[in-house]
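sorry for the late reply, my laptop died twice this morning and i had to redo everyting from scratch. anyway the thing you sent over, i finally got around to it. pasting the sequence first so we're on the same page, its 215 residues, then the predicted structure underneath. double check i copied it right bc i was rushing
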Amino acid sequence: MRKISWLDHFVNLIVVITGISVAFALNNWNEEKKTNELHDTYIQAMIDDLDFDIAELDSLVKYESESLKIFRRLLSRSEPPLSDDSLNIAFARIASLNSFTSKNITYESIKSSGKFELLDLKLRIDIIEFYHSGYDQIDEIESYYRMNFDNQIIPILLNDAYGTGTGLNTDVIKSDKFRTVLGLHSSFLAQKIQAYQRGHNLALKLERELKANLK
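ok and here's the structure:
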């Protein structure tokens, strides 16, 4: 009768258990690695979106600040008159209408994918708050600016500045009507610039937080 070696059975059992444990640990490591990679992919994509917004807002602040200087120059009674070329440039600025559109593709994607829980809770809260209200001020002032542009700027351009059909009527800048309309438009523009700067700063703040959460 063959003698059973319990020691051999025990060693074999340990080998099997160890193998299972190693395989399980390796599987967990692989899953965690995939999760971390997906986590960082979403965060990096959101950083890229914010980079786009920040660059766009920076460009708008610079352009609109230059426009505001030109408008104030037109309204100034103490400055010498502008040349015809400068007036044409000024009226081209008055006739331009710029607006900001946020690039929020990643935010909408991660919401709809059900992967939002991959991110830290505080980060999720800050992201939601930013995309729900970070640019609200921009939307609000742009709507007022656009309304004033449609109702006041376009009519005065069509009827007074270019109404003769022979190019720019430079005498329009002397009228009280024009000065009142451009003064209000300049006020809205100054508020628009402030809103762009605020949105720019909030986007930078969120971007720093996102970078700190990369694994």
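Residues 6-75 form the longest helix (70 residues).
thats about all i looked at so far, will dig more tmrw
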